[in-house]
Write a structure and sequence with these properties.
The protein is an alpha+beta fold. The chain is 32% helix and 27% strand. An 8-stranded antiparallel β-sheet has the order 1-2-6-7-10-15-16-17. A 3-stranded antiparallel β-sheet has the order 3-5-4, with helices on one face. It has a 3-stranded antiparallel β-sheet with strand order 8-9-18, with no helix packed on it. A hairpin with a 5-residue loop joins strand 11 and strand 12. 44% of the residues are buried.
């Protein structure tokens, strides 16, 4: 069974494999759509009524605010990702995106944002309250969390089901499809070539890509820009890379590392990804493909691979 629609500004699709009846398949699809809708109500920066948009409007007022479970999880994960990525993952880039002309989200009101030296968010776990010092973007980590939560619900209800769940090109897979030992996932060429740069065999977990291929535009001065912002420069990253793909058990953390590794650039990505034991593939500005040993173990075919 295959179903698809749109959610969080991108394509949402579920493929179920194996002997599941139609009723089960429709129930699974409904569960996924409900989870993504609940996540959008909490985390979308494209909805003025979302919990995140309302909280962003209060950024810098110095008050603690009680928040729902999803927004709490997103901001707690974002704070941790900021710390362990040495600041390369930084949800405050929402202000840069607005400055360079990405107008898709809810426009930010003037806020009393604190200096960059102050943590962008403070957490009160005992009462699940948030004090936000700077507007933030849920971005890719929000989509990764929606995939995580949807997958958890599917596995809790149907632990033996084999499925592929995709949101905007990021996927989570579970179980073995019939007549195959794993799901085969193609990594798109960010330079637009029709053939993929690699094909991966994955039985369980997530495959996430950060790329400049889709979200790019011209800023007010007519210069080409894209959405992968380097918080160290406050500008679109000029890292020499066109895309980074990461395979990991959790889609939210795969999302974090795909962005952090993108900012590591052509010189830093290999050593860091190998040191962290990450399965990572990257395509540079000239079209060259690199991968870590952990990635090579999952690769069934890649551009330039000898037969």
């Amino acid at each position: 069974m295959h179903r698809e629609s749109r959610a969080m500004g991108s394509r949402l699709a579920l493929t179920l494999a194996g002997a599941l009846d139609d009723g089960t398949g429709e129930a699974a699809w409904g569960m996924v759509r409900d989870e993504f809708e609940a996540t959008e109500r909490a985390l979308s920066r494209f909805r003025p009524e979302s919990e995140l948009s309302i909280l962003n409007g209060r950024a810098g007022d110095g008050e603690f605010v009680a928040v729902g479970e999803r927004l709490w999880a997103c901001l707690a994960a974002s704070r941790r990702a900021h710390r362990i990525s040495d600041g390369r993952f930084d949800p405050r880039v929402i202000t840069v995106l607005e400055t360079i002309g990405e107008r898709a989200g809810v426009p930010l009101a003037a806020t009393r944002s604190a200096s960059a030296q102050r943590p962008f968010v403070e957490l009160d776990p005992r009462q699940r309250r948030i004090r936000l010092w700077h507007p933030v973007d849920s971005g890719g980590i929000g989509k990764g969390l929606a995939l995580r939560w949807s997958a958890a619900r599917l596995q809790s209800r149907w632990p033996d089901a084999a499925y592929l769940l995709e949101a905007g090109g990021d996927v989570v897979v579970h179980g073995r499809p019939p007549h195959a030992g794993a799901w085969h996932i193609a990594v798109e060429d960010p330079h637009g070539a029709p053939d993929p740069v690699a094909v991966l065999a994955v039985e369980r977990g997530a495959v996430v890509t950060s790329s400049i291929a889709v979200r790019h535009w011209l800023d007010g001065a007519g210069r080409p820009v894209h959405h992968l912002i380097d918080p160290r420069t406050g500008a679109p990253a000029d890292s020499g890379l066109a895309s980074v793909t990461v395979a990991a058990l959790d889609p939210a953390w795969a999302e974090v590392w795909s962005k952090a590794l993108f900012l590591a650039g052509t010189r830093g990505i290999g050593p860091e990804a190998r040191a962290r034991g990450l399965a990572a593939w990257w395509v540079d500005a000239e079209g060259g493909l690199g991968m870590t040993p952990a990635a090579r173990a999952l690769t069934t075919w890649s551009r330039g691979m000898k037969p």
